[in-house]
Amino acid sequence: MSLRSGLGAVRRKLMLSCHVRSRMLSTDAPIVSFTFDDFPQSAWLAGGRILEDFGVRGTYYAAAGLMRTTNRLGPQFVPDDLHALLERGHDLGSHTYNHVSARSLSAAAFLEDLEKGRAALAEITGVHTANFSYPFGNVTLATKKAAGRDLASARGIYDGINGPEVDLALLRGNRLYGDSSSFDPARRMIEENVRQNGWLIFYTHDVQANPSQYGCTESVLKKVVSAAVGSGSRVCTVEQVLKELGVQAPKDNSRRVPA
After folding, report:
1. Which residue among 39, 97, 120, 259 has the highest number of C-beta atoms inside a 10 angstrom radius?
2. pTM (two decimals)
3. What is the pLDDT of residues 217-234, one digit of tens each?
4. Which domains does the chain have, with CATH numbers?
5. What angle do CA 21, 27, 33 make, to 5 degrees?
């Protein structure tokens, strides 16, 4: 094991074991959620259409500072996309304002950017987002402690299945990147989640014919959604699952500046 991978394993163990805000998952059927980070317009225009074709909905984590920009993932969302996805029953979460890493700022500065992002989304939509995902999947003990306290949930990128004990301060997420070669690993995860009767969360970014290294093709997303539905799993948004767990959204603190 290299020094870098060894340090990564230690960090993973530390983050998953500290400042846990646990809730026991009780469900009569396995659950799968599809989530999109940043988010590129293709995640909504293509990804949202695929989900709706199967009669299900997804969770979109938006970094408000990326709105109306274009980057390596393609054109990013515009305000109309936020209104449209909410009107159609999808879930809107926050992803900071400037898409910053928790490891690059002090905890206070990171939380200030997080709250700035929530405030911007609330100003556009009137919705005070209670669910969050960490940009780049980067999390520190200080930010996990604060996000776990102030938000309904925070999702990372440590893979695995959520349950029977769910850590609301660091939900496990499983990447869905690439083309058809990524289908079999995703299918196996769905099958394992059925055996465990747990909550499996997938995440990706752009959804297009030639995706970035952080996105997937329409074809593979369609196959994975079909496999999830066909497995007998319930496909739910993050917010839907939290409601079933009885998780109360915190009081609006979107304009609170952390001390």
Report:
1. 39
2. 0.94
3. 999 999 999 999 999 999
4. 29-244 (3.20.20.370)
5. 75
